[in-house]
């Protein structure tokens, strides 16, 4: 405590910034304490972070940390109410709060401003000039002169001797005097007079005109003369398409040949060709074609992926537009234009249940939440939530209880969609909720948690194209005041609160919490048909009707990272696998192409995309092939539905 004044004096001589910081820390942590009790020494106090004590006193007993149970609210109240809050600091050695005195606060302020710690220290004291211009009687130092200052140096004598010897031997030559006469160079002295100058090397002579042949003779052989039909055909042709620019004619003698009518015209065109047509010598680069092919791993090294057709699910009488698998992977649902929805057992291809609906089924989607057994089915302007009653009976009954436990709110708000509970025969078939929309519904898709359902109703002139339903509250909302373009399909982000909306040419990514547009992806294609989101959420693939598949890396760019053109006809559906690095696309050419799409955790490494297998099996019906593809949730299997009325499983 008594050393505080001396410390500030010592600090006064610390001109270095680091020195000042050291003294400031020392003053704050040591000088301001009433009692330096902690004997742990100069160590990081973080070492005691997980212990109840903070060090040891002089007797070797533990110094326990003071009880700090202040939360942020108490801290805020203390900040508002305690007048000494600003001058209170925590001592890391003891964990106690210390109130700085006015003198210490003043010292801290001086140090922060870069001043000296001691108030009385004068940094501008007059300097004592020891060596001035005045000649002094007595010298500053009375030291006698060195002996070396008046005796020749032996070392220098030796060096000079070596240099003289080197000059005698010719090792060191004297510098030549610089020539003052100007020098001139002849640039063309060494040039070969027969060589072509550089500016003429690239010259390409104009091609010479074709020499006249038999057809240009005034007396050509009879086979060169045109018949009446050939002459009429020649006159009807465009000048560019004619083989000959004139009609061959026969004259009795050279005197009878008239002047050529197009002579000046042709000469003028020839002159134009000579001075307007650019001719340049192109340097041909010899490239090995194999070097241009990217080095991709062999498909054999990228297994497992589906390779063979294992099962065919037959039963539908018309084209199967949509398929979906249950979260367990045991059941498969398919919707067809024959106005039926069929439920299949995946492992046996046995149809367990057929539900008839009132129109051609445009989309089916199984709820991804394994604790809820619900399937969304869309046809015409209706979406039906259906409980198939397959699998675990406890889950099925729990789903029914969840729907029946709904209580209507006191204030009923007007909604764009009418919710009704299914009764009678529909309820026996499994119908639970019926949602009547103002327009025809094209697509249904679930959120990953299984409570929200998005529906797409394409209509170019309307703002109501996308609606999101909340099943637990039976509430419908239109997230967009107006839609830009004709909405094709939508998708929820698997992890974050993002919503993907694909129009004909763009994919817009919206943040549902902030309610704003986050990104706008440019697909570089004419008409987007389908979209799928990677389970990691950072990559999106889009299929289009102009045979392209675009892979977007959301962290990389708003333009496609890669565009694949493997299909010959329009793409109808794309899908990612939930666990394996696989994605598939189905097209009207009747094939399903499976690709390996590896996404790395390292952000600097781009995704690896390798096509591994083309799966064929569907027959093309009415120019339509594969209409929907989806992966098995756990196995590397892919399902495809086609216009031939079948669903096929490739394993």
Estimate the helix proportion, in percent: 10-25%
Q: Which structural class best describes the helix and strand composition?
A: alpha+beta
How far do the termini sit from each other? 82 Å
Largest sheet: 5 strands, antiparallel
What proportion strand? 25-35%
Strand order of the largest sheet: 10-11-12-14-13
Note down, in words, how this protein is organized.
The chain has 651 residues and is an alpha+beta fold. It is built from eleven helices and 33 strands. A five-stranded antiparallel beta sheet has the order 10-11-12-14-13. A hairpin with a 5-residue loop joins strand 27 and strand 28. Helix 1 runs antiparallel to helix 2. The longest helix is centred in the N-terminal third of the chain and has 16 residues. The protein is flat.
Notable characteristics:
651 residues; alpha+beta; five-stranded antiparallel beta sheet; four-stranded antiparallel beta sheet; 11 helices; 27% strand; disordered N terminus; nucleus; WD40_repeat_CS; WD40_rpt; WD repeat; rRNA processing
Short description:
Helices cover 17% and strands 27% of the residues. With 651 residues, it is α+β, with helices and mostly antiparallel strands. It starts with a helix and ends with a strand.
Layout of SSEs?
Layout: H1 4-12, H2 17-31, E1 53-56, E2 62-64, H3 72-81, E3 88-90, E4 97-99, H4 102-112, H5 154-169, H6 198-201, H7 228-236, H8 263-276, H9 289-292, E5 309-314, E6 320-325, E7 331-336, E8 340-345, E9 350-356, E10 361-366, E11 375-379, E12 382-386, H10 393-404, E13 418-421, H11 425-429, E14 431-436, E15 443-446, E16 452-456, E17 466-470, E18 475-477, E19 489-492, E20 498-502, E21 506-511, E22 516-522, E23 528-533, E24 539-544, E25 549-553, E26 562-564, E27 571-576, E28 582-587, E29 591-598, E30 608-616, E31 626-631, E32 638-642, E33 646-650
Antiparallel strand pairs: 1-2, 3-4, 5-33, 6-7, 7-8, 8-9, 10-11, 11-12, 12-14, 13-14, 15-16, 16-17, 17-18, 19-20, 20-21, 21-22, 23-24, 24-25, 25-26, 27-28, 28-29, 29-30, 31-32, 32-33
């Amino acid at each position: 405590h008594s050393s505080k004044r001396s410390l500030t004096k010592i600090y006064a001589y610390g001109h270095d910034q680091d020195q000042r910081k050291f003294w400031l820390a020392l003053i704050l942590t040591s000088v301001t304490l009433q009692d330096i009790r902690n004997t742990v020494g100069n160590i990081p106090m973080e070492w005691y972070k997980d212990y109840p004590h903070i060090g040891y006193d002089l007797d070797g007993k533990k110094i326990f940390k003071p009880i700090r149970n202040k939360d942020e609210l108490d801290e805020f109240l203390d900040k508002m109410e305690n007048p000494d809050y600003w001058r209170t600091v925590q001592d890391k050695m003891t964990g106690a709060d210390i109130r700085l005195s006015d003198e210490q606060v003043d010292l801290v302020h001086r140090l922060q401003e870069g001043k000296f710690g001691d108030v009385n220290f004068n940094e501008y004291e007059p300097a004592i000039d020891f060596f001035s211009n005045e000649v002094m009687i007595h010298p500053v130092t009375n030291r006698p002169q060195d002996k070396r200052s008046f005796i020749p140096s032996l070392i220098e004598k030796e060096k000079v001797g070596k240099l003289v010897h080197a000059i005698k031997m010719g090792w060191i030559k004297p510098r030549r005097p610089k020539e003052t006469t100007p020098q001139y160079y002849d640039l063309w002295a060494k040039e070969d007079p027969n060589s072509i100058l550089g500016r003429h090397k690239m010259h390409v002579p104009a091609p010479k005109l074709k020499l006249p042949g038999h057809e240009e003779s005034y007396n050509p052989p009879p086979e060169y003369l045109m018949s009446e039909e050939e002459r009429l055909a020649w006159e009807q042709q465009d000048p560019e398409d004619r083989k000959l620019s004139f009609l061959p004619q026969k004259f009795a003698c050279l005197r009878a040949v008239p002047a050529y009518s197009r002579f000046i015209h042709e000469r003028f065109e020839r002159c134009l060709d000579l001075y307007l047509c650019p001719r340049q010598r192109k340097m041909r680069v010899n490239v090995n074609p194999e070097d241009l092919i990217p080095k991709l791993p062999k498909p054999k090294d990228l297994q497992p992926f589906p390779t063979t057709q294992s099962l065919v699910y037959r039963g539908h009488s018309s084209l199967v537009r949509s398929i979906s698998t249950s979260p367990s992977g045991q059941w498969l649902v398919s919707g067809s234009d024959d106005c039926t929805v069929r439920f299949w057992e995946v492992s046996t291809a046995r149809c367990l249940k057929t539900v008839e609906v009132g129109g051609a089924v445009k989309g089916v989607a199984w709820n991804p939440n394994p604790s809820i057994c619900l399937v969304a089915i869309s046809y015409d302007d209706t979406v039906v939530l259906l409980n198939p009653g397959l699998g675990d009976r406890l889950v099925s009954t729990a789903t029914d209880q969840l729907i029946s436990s709904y209580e209507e709110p006191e204030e009923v708000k007007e909604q764009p969609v009418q919710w009704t509970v299914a009764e009678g025969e529909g309820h026996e078939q499994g119908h639970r909720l019926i949602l009547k929309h103002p327009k025809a519904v094209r697509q249904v898709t679930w959120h990953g948690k299984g409570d929200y359902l998005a529906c797409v109703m394409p209509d170019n002139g309307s703002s109501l194209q996308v609606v999101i339903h909340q099943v637990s509250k039976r509430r419908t909302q239109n997230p967009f005041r107006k839609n830009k373009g004709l909405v094709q399909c939508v998708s929820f982000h698997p992890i974050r609160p993002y919503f993907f909306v694909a129009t004909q040419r763009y994919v817009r990514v919206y943040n549902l919490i902030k309610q704003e547009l986050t990104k706008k992806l440019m697909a570089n294609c004419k008409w987007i048909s389908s979209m799928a989101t990677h389970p990691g959420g950072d990559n999106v693939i889009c299929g289009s009707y102009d045979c392209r598949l675009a892979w977007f890396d959301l962290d990389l760019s708003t333009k496609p990272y890669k565009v694949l053109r493997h299909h010959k006809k329009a793409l109808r559906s794309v899908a990612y696998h939930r666990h394996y690095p696989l994605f598939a696309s189905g097209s009207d050419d009747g094939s399903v192409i499976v690709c390996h799409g590896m996404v790395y955790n390292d952000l600097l490494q781009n995704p690896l995309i390798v096509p591994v297998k083309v799966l064929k099996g569907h027959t093309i019906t009415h120019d339509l092939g594969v209409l929907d593809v989806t992966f098995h949730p756990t196995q590397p299997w892919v399902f495809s539905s086609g216009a031939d009325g079948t669903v096929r499983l490739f394993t």
